[in-house]
């Protein structure tokens, strides 16, 4: 998939990124994993005196909201081969998951602390 990089207000040449789509089964597994992690946190926070009045509802709401958000992520981009244009070090980042409408990724370089904005071109053509 072709992508353009904006670095400090300057456009870099187009690059090719590796991408893949999550199947419905993978999306459900990822969503349920997030749901049960926050549900367990809510159950454990019952044991904390006074704070459980805030923590239990917080973790229950987070379990629902974040699992729904994780379920909507249908595609992933792997920017492991990207190199920072400023310091020439490899960006240390994992796979970035995106929902169907998203076409912009923002990455930070760990060494020079600058931000790269990746704009994915032909998003509709690549994922259909």
Write the layout of secondary structure elements.
Blueprint: E1 2-7, E2 10-11, E3 15-16, E4 18-21, H1 24-44, H2 52-72, E5 73-78, E6 96-99, E7 104-108, E8 115-120, H3 123-126
Antiparallel strand pairs: 1-2, 1-3, 1-8, 4-5, 5-6, 7-8
What does this protein look like?
This protein has 128 residues and is of the alpha+beta class. The chain folds into two domains: 1-17 and 79-128; 24-74. The protein is built from three helices and eight strands. It has helices at 24-44, 52-72, 123-126; strands at residues 2-7, 10-11, 15-16, 18-21, 73-78, 96-99, 104-108, 115-120. Strands 1, 2, 3, 7 and 8 form a five-stranded antiparallel sheet that branches. Strand 7 and strand 8 (115-120) form a beta hairpin. The longest helix has 21 residues, at 24-44. The two termini are 12 Å apart.
What does the main sheet amount to? Answer: 5 strands, antiparallel
General form = elongated
Strand content: 25-35%
Mean pLDDT: 86
* SS summary, helix count: 3
The low-confidence runs, each spanning 5 or more residues with pLDDT under 50, are: 124-128
**Count of discrete structural domains:** 2
- Determine the structural class based on helices, strands and strand pairing: alpha+beta
The helix fraction, in percent, is 25-40%
Could you name the key traits of this structure?
128 residues; alpha+beta; 2 domains; 5-stranded antiparallel beta sheet; 3 helices; 27% strand; elongated; disordered C terminus
């Amino acid at each position: 998939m072709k992508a353009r990089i904006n670095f400090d207000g300057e456009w870099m040449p187009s690059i090719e990124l590796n991408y893949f789509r999550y199947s419905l089964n993978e999306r459900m597994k990822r969503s349920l994993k997030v749901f049960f992690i926050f549900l367990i946190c809510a159950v454990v926070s019952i044991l904390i005196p006074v704070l459980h009045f805030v923590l239990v509802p917080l973790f229950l709401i987070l379990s629902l909201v974040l699992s729904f958000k994780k379920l909507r992520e249908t595609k992933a981009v792997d920017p492991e081969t990207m190199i920072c244009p400023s310091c020439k070090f490899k960006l240390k980042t994992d796979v970035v998951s995106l929902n169907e409408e998203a076409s912009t990724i923002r990455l930070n370089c760990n060494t020079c602390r600058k931000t790269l904005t990746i704009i994915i071109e032909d998003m509709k053509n690549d994922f259909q």
